Every structure is written in C-alpha cells, then in structure tokens.
C-alpha cells in the first residue's frame, strides 16, 4: 500500500521477532528492577517520590513503544532525506538548553515542556546517528579515506559533543563520540589518517582534561584510578556497587532481598547502578542472562546492518547497535569497577523518560531497517 | 566486529564471575558488615568508698547540649535556646559566632557540636520538653527546637571535691600513647582512664567490661516484627554480650577524719598530713595541700575547663598536683632524733642518764654547729623533750668515732630498718624514695671528701637525709607498736557492684624491726614528755583532752637564714619546714600521725596545733562511733525481745 508522499505502510512486512523478543525482555526486566531498586524509598518521607519512578517509567515505555512503532512504520529513506534537518533542529535544541534549561545539580540538561522535562541531548544520540549515516551514504568513495575526507563527519560529531560537554555532561558526550566513531569505522581509512586521528584524540583529551572538565568529573576519574584515595565520595559508590554485585553470588539474594540496595548502600540505584541492583538480586546466573541479551541485541544489529539494502540503512543499524553496546559496556563496566563512574545509562534499565524514549526510537529504527532489507 | 563485541562481553562476564563467584565470600562479608551495627553497651565504673561506706567517687550523668549547625535556625530556634538556657550576653555572642562559622563549613556543618557541658537539671527539663528528634514533623516547626539535642554522658563525680584528690585520683581522656600501650585491653579513643591515685592503680578493677549488641542498621522506621525478622535473618549468634560493671573499692580511709584534717590545716598554705593505724598500717588520712578539684580535672565541666585548670595548677609554685604525702621527700629534721638515739643506744655508745652541757652549740673540729637554744645540762630524755641539738651532735660524734668510723652508716641502717629512705610499697602514686645517706653515698657525691660533720648533721635529721611524710608516719607507728613495720594499705576490700566482697586485704607486716624493747620504752617515754612535760617543745600547743606522744621538728631549707631574723620576715620559700610526728593515745597507741607544713617555720608552734586538732577529732569520732554501735546493738536486742 502506497500513500501520498511515498510514505509506505507495508502491513504484513516481516517483523523481526528475535529483535522484538530481546527488546520486550530488556524493557520488562528494566521496569521490574527499577521497582525493586527504588522500593527502598517507600518509607522515606524526603524521597517518597522515588518509589513511584517505575510507574512513570512504564508510561514512558508505552510512549516510547508507540514512537518506536511509528518510526519503524515510516520507510527509513525519509529519515535519510531529513537527516540534516533533524541535525539542525537538534543543535538548536541543544543551544536552547542553555537559554531555557533548568539548572539541576549544577548541570543544565533539561528543558521544561508543559509538565514534562525533557533532555534534548538524549534525542541527539539518534539524530547524530542519522546525520553521520547520511554523510556516509552521500559519499560513495571506495578508496581509503584521507584525513581531509574525515573532516565533515568529524565536525558533525564534534559540534554536539562540545555543546553537551558544556552542560556539562561528560557521559553523553562520550556516548556521542564513541557511537559516531563506530559508524565511521565502517569506512576504509588510510593508515596515516587513522594514526594522526588517534594522536589528535589524545591531544584533545589532554586539553579537555585541563580546560574542559569540572572538578567533580576529574574526581570520578582519579578516584577510579586510585580507589583507596577517596573512599568517602565517588570511590565509595563504586566500591559499594562492587560489593552489591559480589554479594549476589551465584544465584542472587532474591527479588527485593538485596541488602546493599535495601539498606541504602547503593547510591543512584535508579540511574547509575541498576545493574548492581539486578546482579545482587539475581546473582551470576541472572546477570549472565541479562548481559547475553544485551550482547545478542548488539550482534543482531550488526546482522541487520549486513543485511541492509543500502549504505544508509547499514550505517543506522551499526549506529544503534553501537549506542547500545557502548552504553552497556560503560554502565556495567562502571558498576563492576572496570571503568570510572561517568553517568552513562544502561539501556532501558536506567530510569529516565528521554533515555527510554531514545532507546525505543533507536530500536524502532533497527526494526525499520530490518523490515526493509 | 562481531568478534569484538563478543570478546568485550566475555570480559564483562569474566569480571562478573570474579566478583560473584571467586570473591563472593569477601563481598558477602562486606555487605553484612555494612548492615550490621555493633552497639556498645556501656558499663559503669566501680564506686570508691571510705572505710565507713561513704562514697568518695561515683558516676553521675552530665547533661550536655548539642546543636547541628546546619539545621538550627538562627532566627527562630536560637533565641529560644538562649532564653531557655539562660545564656548571658557574652556567652551568647561567642556561641553564636561558633555556630555561624560552622554553618559555613561544608564538612562540619551537619556534625553535632557540643554547645554547653553539664547544664543544670532545670535547663535539661526545659530543653527536653521542646526537643525534636529526627525529621521535623509537619506544622510543629515553631514549637520544637529543631537541631538541638540534650544528651547525658556519664561523668566521674567526687562528692568531697578537693578532699583527698591526690589519693583518690581523677579521670583523664586516654591519650594516643596509652592507647598503643594498652592495645588489646579494649580502650578506645575518647575513653576515660584513671589518671592518678586509686583511680589509676585499680583501673583494671574499677573499669568493668563493655558489652555489645548487634543490630541490623539503617532500616527506615521498621516495625517491631520486621526488625525481629531482619535480625533473625542477618545476625549470627551470639547477638549480645552483657556488660560487666566495674568492681567497687572500699578504702581504709576515714573521710570524716580527712575533713577534720582539712579544717585543721586551714590557714596553712601547703603541707601534708598522714594518719595511719599503728596496729595494721592502714591509712586513715592522707592529705596534701594545696589540692585540686578532681571533678573539674575529670572533665565534668568540659575539656576547656580541664585545660584551663591544668594550666593554672602547673604554674602554681605551691605544686597542687604533687602528692606531698607520697611523692615528695623532705629533710626530717628533729623528728629523726629518736632513730639517732636508738642507733647510739643499740651500739652502747651513749649512757642515757649521762648529761651533755649545751651552751647553744657544739664545736666539731674547726666547725661550730648551732643548737636551737641554750639548754644547759641535758640527758637523753631531756634532750629529746627539749629537742637539744647539742646533745645529738655529741651523740653523732660518738657514733662517728666508734670503731670503723661508720657512724653515719649506723644511722642510715636504723632509719632504713624503720622504713625511712626506702619505698613503702603503697602502690598508689609514684613514690619518692627519700634518702638515708651513707658514707659511700657522701664519698660518691663529694668526690671522696667525707667529713665527720656529715654524721653530726645526719643525727639531727639534716644534711642529705630526706623522708616522705608516709615513711615517717609508718616509722612512728613502729615506734609506737613495739617495732612492727607495716606495709601501708589504702584498699581494704574489693566488692562486686551488688556488695559481695571479692577480695579482702589483711594487714601485711613488712618486718619486725630489730630493736631492744627497753630502748624503745625509753624513747616512748621521751616522746610522751615532748607533749606532756612543761619544757616539751609541743607542751604549749597541747590540747587538754588529747592524750598523745610525739616529736616536733624544724627542718632547715636554706643555709643562709641568718640567726635572729624574725622567721615571718624570711622569704616564704626559704622558711623552714615545720614537722610534728607522733602517736595516740600515748599509753596504748592506736594511730600514728605526721604533720608537715611546708615552709611553716617552727614545728612546735605551727605543726603541733594541727596534729592536736586532728587527734582530738579522731578521739571524738571514735567515741561517737562507739556510742552509735552500742545504740545499734541495743536496738537489735530490743527487737529480739
């Protein structure tokens, strides 16, 4: 069936069942885990609102599923056409944050919209994937690329990274950069270009460390490198998270029975450490199953990319897969003490409307590419 | 790409396995440690009582007011706290400044800070009615004092204040060195430990043993049932160890007599009095002046008051912190003469009835040794009664000239036999040894130049001889009881907190002094004469109803005191020490008493009145107690009928 403007609703197109099952599994476990994680606050008069997070998370997931279905329904080539428009809108929204945004805990990330607050930087993750994918699709050069060739996509990445860094939000800007680089990794790049790129990144990170980062961000990294130095602040959080995971043992403490969480030793269990809550309650067995599910989603998106009918579709699938991969790696690695504590969410496990919505839209894109191979 | 993803997930799962399988036990223990809190159950320190059951040291709660600077509202709450506590303007300003400063300090502002120590019960009652614990209840904000708390802390309490503080001791906060030294005995920083006296010596008995109770912590408002469930689930047995209260200690001291001593010593700046039971060696009184308030020293009025008090105490030239009964040695002066006499008598170097002519001094070689007056012809008895130095110089020369030229060693030997110049082994407070100089001591000290004059000086208790007040009291007890030298005793018994006696300390004899009873009788008669004969040095100051014997002493401190100068005009620290040593009753002695008045001038004039009044009080107390006992027995008999 073909509508006007070439919008196609191919009812009966092959729905990607494995992908769907994976998404449903993660979303369900995420809500259940959030319920347990925030149940601590039921009796806490100051933070009773936390205990109802799972309800709003359910609302957001419902909204996200609808958005995802909608995204999946429209042929992704429309997005290809509009990618730069979206990108422009995203950049404007990121700039608006500084004008309209609310200052929460020292950072400006949110915009109030009616009774909702939303976080443009989250949606920008998808928009960036689309923009970089569009650039790749437009540039059919086959020989290895020089550094000069890389300037436009790198600029596409650098602009939002810089804007988000200024909020400041280290986690999200890292997520942008890693996702974009993963998409760019599809290209053939000259060895010399790759080398100078690496040197450039190294130099940039030194500059960022010196001038671009706030004290608390540096602290997170130093406390990771030397956890004994700071057992009262961030290092303490990371240590308690490790203890929680270890406490889970082979089979876990049982649903809502994890003492580390129930006794309030896990800070930010709804955003930074949902994996610790899960691992404590479900143990090694449950955690391996969860990680396997994430792993499956990543590999499956590579599979979808390899089956895609055009460059844009493949790049989008790789982009979404990379986003899930880096988020999972960063968040789980941080919970297990392998990586420093930077606020990167665990897809569909961490509480957050914008984040859930973004992830589900991402899955919608994946589904879209998968259905139209 | 797939391989990369797989390998990263393998790393994550590997780490997961490390945490959850390999290190599972460690993390399990850590998480248990997180949620289980061991609550210390306080024990109470044992009570110290006197021989008649009067409490000398006990515990009382001190109510301290704390504030949380980050919570207290300086506009609404603070003025009400000021009003309720009745703070004056300067106090208010100082405290206000402190709270404001702390409010600005991010790390300290949520910590409770001590506002005031030991507020009165009235204030406690007022503050308690308005105290609010935990989060502020809605709508009650203007009623409750949010951020203010009154909490009791146990404080050692000494009802008799300065009285006997040196012997009973006080408490101090345990310091880092002690903590290190006492490792494994359960002391924690912030604990209090006995600083001196009985509190220190018997610390391990008095202290008791802390208990503990384990509980699951951090449960937000748990119901009783929920708590019990949680505890059953997470706590291992045993969950509780009961505290053991400290042992109570009964002393040999009589606090009523101590009070009388303090009264008798009023008007004197510094000195010491010791009263011992001649039949047991038990201390009835040990009084050192000036003293200090152990209540303040123990921190009952806050740490600032402690620092301030000690700064003052240590800068005082009268040395209030020094226990002058045990820890300081003084030249015994004429109180030593009975022992010189015993030495000469034992060696048959003196005929007690032979007379020496005193013209106010004595030539020995090219040196002239002065006497206290011109006594004319005196024999041994008279020499002791009037305290004639000339007689004892002659006696000293006789000892010096005896075969072997070891007269001074003989003097030292008799002194040592009676416990002078040697530690008594009382066990409480650091003991000064004192000194009975011997020929070899002088040889060492004066590079080989021993002179006979030293023996002469030693025979009147001057020169290098020093003794402590306690030693002298025990030696006079031995003179009185026929030559039995006792180990001094402070603690009579140890009881559990419910009164069961755990350990009792019977009197201990240190030695039987090898002394001829005939010689001793002669000395005792002379000592009785000192008080009761018209010429006696203590006669003028004797009390009609007091029956005692004794010996006065005036110990020279400065060699430059010129003769004929009014003693009251000499600089205080150059004045002579005044002594009075004796026992009562003279016929059948029960107690021995030594009075030392530092820089008190003449012993007869200044030390004797003090001794007399103390003995008088002792007689009255004894009579009163006998009457009470008789009445009690009568009552019992009446009840029986």
Please tell me the CATH architecture of the domain at 38-251 in chain B by its name: Alpha-Beta Complex
Give the largest interface. Answer: A-B, 38 and 33 residues
The CATH homologous superfamily of the domain at 38-251 in chain B? Penicillin-binding protein 2a (Domain 2)
Rg of Cα set of chain A:
21 Å
In which range does the helix fraction of chain A lie? 55-70%
Strand content of chain B: 15-25%
The first-level CATH class of the domain at 38-251 in chain B is given as Alpha Beta
Strand content of chain A: under 5%
Across the major sheet of chain A, the strand order is 1-2-3
Instruction: Please indicate the count of domains of chain A.
Output: 1
The secondary structure category of chain A is mainly alpha
The percentage helix of chain B is 25-40%
Structural class of chain B: alpha+beta
Number of H/I helices of chain B:
22
How many helices of chain A? The count is 13
* CATH topology annotation of the domain at 38-251 in chain B: Penicillin-binding protein 2a (Domain 2)
Largest sheet of chain A: 3 strands, antiparallel
Global shape of chain B: elongated
| Radius of gyration of chain B from CA coordinates | 33 Å
Question: For the terminal residues of chain A, how far apart are their CA atoms?
Answer: 17 Å
- According to DSSP, the number of beta strands of chain A is 3
Can you walk me through this structure?
The complex is a heterodimer of chains A (373) and B (641). Chain A is mainly α. Chain A has helices at residues 17-38, 53-73, 76-100, 120-138, 147-165, 170-184, 191-212, 215-225, 234-248, 259-262, 274-307, 311-335, 353-371, and strands at 102-104, 107-113, 116-118. Chain A has one domain. Chain A has 13 helices and three strands. In chain A, strands 1-2-3 form a three-stranded antiparallel β-sheet, covered by helices on one side. In chain A, strand 1 (102-104) and strand 2 form a beta hairpin. Chain A is globular, with a radius of gyration of 21 Å. The relative contact order of chain A is 0.16. Mean pLDDT of chain A is 84; it is low at 1-7. Among the domains of chain B are: 38-251, Penicillin-binding protein 2a (Domain 2) (Alpha-Beta Complex); 252-295 and 322-329 and 421-432 and 468-494 and 519-641, DD-peptidase/beta-lactamase superfamily (Beta-lactamase). In chain B, strands 2, 3, 4, 5, 10, 18 and 19 form a seven-stranded mixed β-sheet that branches. In chain B, strand 11 (271-277) and strand 12 (283-289) form a beta hairpin. Chain B starts with a helix and ends with a helix.
């Amino acid at each position: 069936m073909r509508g006007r403007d070439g919008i196609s609703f191919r009812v009966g197109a092959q729905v990607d069942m494995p992908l769907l099952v994976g998404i449903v599994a993660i979303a369900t476990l995420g809500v259940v885990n959030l319920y347990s994680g925030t149940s601590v606050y039921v009796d806490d008069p100051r933070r009773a609102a936390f205990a109802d997070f799972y309800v709003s998370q359910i609302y957001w997931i419902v909204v996200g599923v609808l958005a995802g279905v909608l995204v999946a329904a429209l042929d992704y080539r429309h997005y290809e056409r509009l990618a730069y428009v979206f990108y422009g809108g995203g950049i404007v929204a990121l700039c608006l944050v500084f004008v309209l945004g609310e200052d929460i805990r020292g950072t400006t990330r949110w915009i109030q919209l009616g009774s909702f607050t939303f976080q443009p930087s989250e949606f920008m993750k998808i928009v960036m994937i689309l923009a970089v994918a569009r650039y790749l699709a437009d540039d059919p050069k086959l020989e290895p690329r020089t550094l000069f060739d890389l300037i436009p996509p790198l600029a596409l990445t650098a602009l939002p990274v810089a804007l988000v860094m200024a909020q400041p939000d280290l986690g999200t800007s890292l997520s942008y950069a890693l996702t974009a680089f993963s998409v760019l990794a599809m290209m053939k790049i000259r060895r010399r270009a790759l080398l100078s790129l690496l040197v450039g990144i190294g130099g940039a990170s030194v500059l960022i460390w010196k001038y671009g980062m706030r004290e608390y961000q540096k602290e997170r990294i130093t406390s990771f490198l030397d956890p004994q130095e700071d057992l009262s602040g961030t290092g303490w959080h990371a240590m308690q998270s490790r203890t929680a995971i270890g406490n889970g043992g082979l089979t876990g403490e049982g649903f809502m029975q994890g003492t580390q969480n129930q006794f309030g030793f896990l800070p930010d269990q709804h955003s930074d450490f949902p994996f610790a809550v899960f691992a404590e309650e479900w143990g090694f067995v449950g955690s391996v199953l969860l990680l396997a599910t994430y792993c499956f989603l990543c590999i499956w998106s590579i599979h979808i990319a390899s089956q895609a009918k055009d460059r844009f579709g493949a790049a989008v699938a790789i982009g979404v897969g990379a986003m899930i991969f880096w988020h999972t790696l960063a968040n789980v690695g941080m919970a297990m003490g392998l990586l420093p504590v930077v606020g990167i969410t665990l897809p569909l496990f961490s509480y957050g409307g914008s984040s859930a919505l973004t992830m589900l839209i991402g899955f919608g894109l994946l589904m879209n590419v998968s259905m139209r191979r | 790409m797939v391989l990369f993803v797989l390998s990263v997930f393998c790393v994550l799962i590997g780490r997961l396995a490390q945490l959850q399988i390999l290190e599972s036990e460690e993390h399990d223990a850590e998480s248990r440690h997180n949620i289980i809190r061991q609550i210390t159950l306080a024990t109470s320190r044992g009570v110290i009582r006197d021989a008649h059951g009067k409490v000398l040291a006990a515990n009382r709660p001190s109510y301290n007011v704390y504030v949380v600077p980050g919570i207290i509202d300086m506009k609404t709450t603070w003025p009400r706290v000021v009003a309720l506590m009745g703070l004056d303007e300067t106090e208010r300003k100082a405290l206000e400044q402190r709270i404001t400063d702390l409010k600005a300090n991010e790390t300290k502002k949520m910590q409770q800070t001590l506002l005031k120590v030991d507020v009165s019960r009235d204030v406690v009652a007022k503050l308690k009615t308005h105290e609010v614990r935990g989060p502020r209840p809605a709508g009650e904000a203007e009623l409750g004092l949010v951020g203010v708390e009154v909490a009791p802390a146990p404080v050692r309490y000494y009802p008799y204040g300065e009285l006997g503080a040196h012997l009973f001791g006080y408490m101090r906060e345990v310091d880092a060195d002690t903590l290190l030294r006492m490792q494994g005995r359960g002391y924690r920083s912030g604990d209090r430990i006995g600083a001196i006296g009985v509190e220190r010596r018997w610390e391990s008995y008095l202290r008791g043993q802390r208990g503990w109770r384990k509980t699951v912590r951090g449960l937000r408002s748990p119901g009783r049932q929920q708590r019990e469930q949680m505890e059953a689930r997470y706590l291992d047995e045993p969950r509780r160890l009961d505290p053991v209260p400290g042992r109570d200690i009964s002393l040999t001291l009589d606090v009523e007599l101590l009070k009388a001593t303090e009264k008798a010593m009023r008007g004197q700046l510094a000195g010491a009095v010791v009263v011992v039971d001649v039949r047991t060696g038990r201390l009835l009184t040990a009084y050192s002046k000036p003293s200090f308030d152990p209540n303040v020293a123990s921190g009952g009025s806050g740490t600032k008051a402690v620092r301030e008090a000690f700064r003052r105490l240590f800068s005082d030239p009268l040395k209030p912190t020094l226990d002058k009964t045990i820890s300081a040695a003084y030249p015994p002066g004429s109180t030593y003469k009975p022992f010189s006499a015993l030495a000469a008598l034992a060696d048959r170097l003196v005929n007690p009835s032979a007379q020496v002519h005193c013209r106010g001094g004595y030539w020995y070689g090219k040196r002239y040794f002065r006497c206290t007056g011109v006594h004319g012809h005196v024999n041994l008895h008279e020499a002791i009664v009037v305290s004639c130095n000339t007689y004892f110089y002659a006696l000293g020369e006789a000892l010096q000239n005896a075969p072997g030229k070891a007269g001074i060693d003989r003097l030292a030997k008799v002194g040592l036999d009676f416990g002078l110049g040697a530690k008594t082994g009382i066990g409480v407070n650091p003991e000064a040894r004192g000194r009975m100089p011997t020929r070899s001591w002088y040889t060492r000290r004066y590079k080989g130049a021993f002179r006979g004059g030293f023996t002469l000086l030693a025979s009147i208790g001057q020169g290098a001889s020093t003794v402590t007040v306690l030693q002298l009291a025990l030696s006079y007890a031995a003179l009185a009881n026929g030559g039995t030298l006792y180990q001094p005793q402070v603690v009579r018994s140890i009881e559990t907190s419910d009164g069961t006696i755990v350990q009792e300390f019977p009197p201990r004899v240190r030695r039987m002094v090898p002394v001829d009873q005939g010689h001793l009788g002669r000395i005792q008669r002379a000592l009785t004469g000192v008080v009761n004969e018209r010429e006696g040095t203590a006669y003028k100051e004797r009390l009609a109803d007091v029956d005692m014997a004794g010996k006065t002493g005036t110990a020279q401190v400065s060699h430059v005191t010129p003769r004929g100068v009014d003693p009251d005009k000499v600089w205080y620290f150059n004045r002579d020490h005044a002594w009075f040593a004796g026992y009562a009753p003279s016929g059948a002695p029960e107690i021995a008493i030594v009075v030392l008045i530092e820089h008190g001038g003449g012993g007869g004039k200044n030390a004797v009145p003090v001794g007399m009044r103390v003995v008088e009080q002792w007689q009255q107390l004894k009579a009163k107690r006998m009457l009470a006992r008789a009445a009690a027995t009568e009552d019992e008999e009446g009840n029986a009928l």
